């Protein structure tokens, strides 16, 4: 299955790569190295149609898998924080 332009359905596309070819170092410091790798991996490729000039973005299969992993990790972190807060709330009520 080849990629098509969503505007004119042409298959003549030019790939402009990702938004950040070099990943910003600040995100690595804030997110941590493993999460930064998932974040960089999920960014979509920017494509341009050679016939009509329309620009659009498309994620590859690996980028979709990385996005799912990033959402899963974020959900687990939020769940862990919520469970700690929940336990602290009930521990305070028991006293």
Give a quick set of tags describing it.
95 residues; alpha+beta; 3 strands; single chain; 53% helix
Percentage of residues in DSSP E strands: 15-25%
Contiguous helical run count = 3
Q: Give the CA-CA distance, first to last residue.
A: 63 Å
Q: Please give the domain count.
A: 1
The helix/strand series, from N terminus to C terminus, equals: EHHEEH
Largest sheet: 3 strands, antiparallel
- The rough form would be described as elongated
Number of strand segments: 3
The Cα radius of gyration reads: 20 Å
Quickly give the structural class: alpha+beta
Describe the protein's architecture and organization.
The chain is an alpha+beta fold and 95 residues long. A hairpin with a 5-residue loop joins strand 2 and strand 3 (55-58). It is elongated and about 70 Å long. The model has no long low-confidence stretch (mean pLDDT 80). Helix 1 crosses helix 2 (33-41) and helix 2 (33-41) packs across helix 3 (61-94). It has a three-stranded antiparallel beta sheet, with no helix packed on it. The chain has one domain (13-94). It has helices at residues 25-31, 33-41, 61-94, and strands at 13-18, 45-49, 55-58.
């Amino acid at each position: 299955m080849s990629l098509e332009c969503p505007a004119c359905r042409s298959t003549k596309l030019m790939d402009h790569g990702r938004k950040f070819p070099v990943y910003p170092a600040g995100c690595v410091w804030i997110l941590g190295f493993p999460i930064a790798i998932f974040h960089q991996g999920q960014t979509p490729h920017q494509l341009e149609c050679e016939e009509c000039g329309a620009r659009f973005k498309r994620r590859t299969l690996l980028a979709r898998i990385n996005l799912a992993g990033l959402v899963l990790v974020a959900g687990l972190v939020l769940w862990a924080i919520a469970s700690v807060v929940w336990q602290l709330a009930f521990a305070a009520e028991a006293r």
